[in-house]
Write a structure and sequence with these properties.
The protein is an alpha+beta fold. The protein is 28% helix and 10% strand. A 3-stranded antiparallel beta sheet has the order 5-7-9, covered by helices on one side. It has a two-stranded antiparallel sheet with strand order 1-2.
Length: 246
């Protein structure tokens, strides 16, 4: 039987160049898959926070249906006192809670005592509410933090902030570096406030940071800082970046 010519009748192995090409292709595919997975994970986190903002929004409306107005945000103690007097006319003991835009959601939506004479008494036997099912592991110093965002325990920052409209606007509704009320920047002449008849809820976004100064013009993005783009509100479609007008 005649001998087979070299490299004929046997299986030829990969050359070094072919192996390097395969390795490079696998690396490219892996990086693409990783990037897609990371983006999908980010969008999923955004969707979870957006859903929670929607639930907080509905809770504020349920609060109004029960007590006749949206929760005070604490920017004006006179407004808070006036609300308490109207909502709890039989109150004879205790005092109105001290709130800020960073603590108002927790303080009001966790519910109040069913005792009409002392609605803010400690350890009530029965409650009106809660209006929202807070995850207590995400509450620090009466501030509520979005899911998946690192909690600041110093009491100087906040995850969610809440602003209640007064007289059709939000003049003076700023507090520290924890966000601020926003106008509609898509209208160049006398831009109106967003949600001028109700309230604004704003989340610090996935980065857990507020910009300084904060963005005030919604929908345009020209005055946003790096920390603003992933912030979310109860009037934005996802993040502030998602809602920028082309």
């Amino acid at each position: 039987m005649a001998a087979l010519p070299p490299n004929q009748g046997g299986r030829r192995g990969f050359t070094l160049v072919e192996m390097l090409v395969v390795v490079v292709i696998i690396g490219i595919l892996a990086s693409l898959i990783t990037a897609v997975a990371m983006q999908a994970r980010r969008r999923a986190r955004i969707a979870v926070i957006a859903l929670e903002i929607s639930e907080l929004d509905m809770a504020c409306k349920a609060f109004k249906a029960r007590f006749g107005d949206y929760p005070p945000d604490g920017c004006d103690t006179t407004v808070t006192a006036r609300f308490v007097k109207k909502a709890f006319p039989r109150m004879t003991s205790g005092s109105a809670p001290s709130v800020t835009p960073a603590t108002a959601l927790v303080v009001w939506l966790k519910g109040v005592s069913a005792d009409p004479t002392n609605p803010f008494g400690a350890s009530p036997t029965s409650m009106i509410g809660p209006f929202f099912d807070f995850d207590t592991s995400r509450i620090s110093a009466n501030t509520y933090w979005p899911p998946g965002v690192a909690i600041d325990t110093t009491g100087t920052k906040a995850g969610y902030v809440y602003f209640r409209a007064e007289n059709g606007g939000y003049a003076g509704k700023t507090w520290d570096t924890r966000g601020g009320a926003m106008t509609d920047g898509r209208i160049t002449t006398n831009p109106p406030w967003m949600n001028p008849g109700s309230f604004q809820i704003r989340a610090c976004g996935l980065d857990g940071k507020w910009a300084t100064p904060w963005a005030t013009s919604f929908g345009v993005g020209t005055d946003y800082k790096a920390e603003d783009y992933d912030d979310m509100t109860n009037f934005s479609n996802g993040t502030l970046e998602d809602s920028i007008t082309p």
